Automatic annotation (TrEMBL):
It comes from Odontophorus gujanensis (marbled wood quail). Gene3D superfamilies: Mog1/PsbP, alpha/beta/alpha sandwich. This is RGMA protein. GO terms for cellular component: plasma membrane; side of membrane. Residues 5-74 form the Repulsive guidance molecule N-terminal domain. GO terms for molecular function: coreceptor activity.
Amino acid sequence: VTSPCKILKCNSEFWAATSGSHHLGAEETPEFCTALRAYAHCTRRTARTCRGDLAYHSAVHGIDDLMVQHNCSKDGPTSQPRLRTLPPGDSQERSDSPEICHYEKSFHKHSAAPNYTHCGLFGDPHLRTFTDTFQTCKVQGAWPLIDNNYLNVQVTNTPVLPGSSATATSKLTIIFKSFQECVEQKVYQAEMDELPAAFADGSKNGGDKHGANSLKITEKVSGQHIEIQAKYIGTTIVVRQVGRYLTFAVRMPEEVVNAVEDRDSQGLYLCLRGCPLNQQIDFQTFRLAQASEGRARRKGPSLPAPPEAFTYESATAKCREKLPVEDLYFQSCVFDLLTTGDVNFMLAAYYAFEDVKMLHSNKDKLHLYERTRALAPGNAAPSEHPWALLALWVALLSLSQCWLGLL
């Protein structure tokens, strides 16, 4: 499902029209104002379909600011001028950033290294919070993942199948707020089948400020994998498109995680507090039902049969190909194959765990297991077989049915 909001198109048109405009002389300011008016006109055309879009609201505020800075009149021509392109040595290839724009150098020069935390969202959708809580959630529609003094991250989740309770991430918006002399405000937005290797304005770094390279985007695999380094806040973000849907992973210092002006609203975003109770799914219970009944689909008319139905046994076998350790990533893979029938969700779980291995600071906590089982020291694999309790439960159920039959 592609969003009807066309703010990305407006942004790219403005960027194309004004590339290199910060090198223009005062006599060419009217051309910049013309491009701004065209930009504003474009945002008005798509306003109705962009009401809940963070990038849209960011663009509208940015236009107003630029209008004031350049003394532009809101009335006038809107034909977009052809301005000259960026000259060699532009800020896109900015050299070393000042110390204030490097988190570890500026804030921890004479103290212990910062404590880094991790949050990830993938699949149908499964959430690993900054506190290593693992949840499976419904969260259909737009939800905030992160909201602090430095950046906002919002995801939009849509049904995998018509009428299905299974959802996955179809849109992601990240807003990096302007920070001192390091970076200008930048917006990154990805949608299904559109994983840009640049910010919404076409740039690949933090803008024209002296520390612009302390924020930059790197394309790892075209259309499938990008990485954003925000050195000024010690943060790394990984965004992937796996199949039709997006995954998100972040590594962030605790100091940045907890940097909020309003403590009362701090719990409103998913990466910190997790999903609301009424949005959480107990997929352990679902898994037990599937194993005992030997079927691959949820009961009830609310979830149509997936295009390729997996049995419990075939789903576990498929997930074991990529996820040999039967932890919560493995179990989420099984859950997703049973609810969607889409093997790309297996890859989503696999890459989510690969991102954990790269981003998590505590290598003893990479794997997570069911909270109902005792964990070995350091969150290592439990000594019992992951499915031992399940097998015992099924056996007891069978014995009770036989006993009732004898009666």
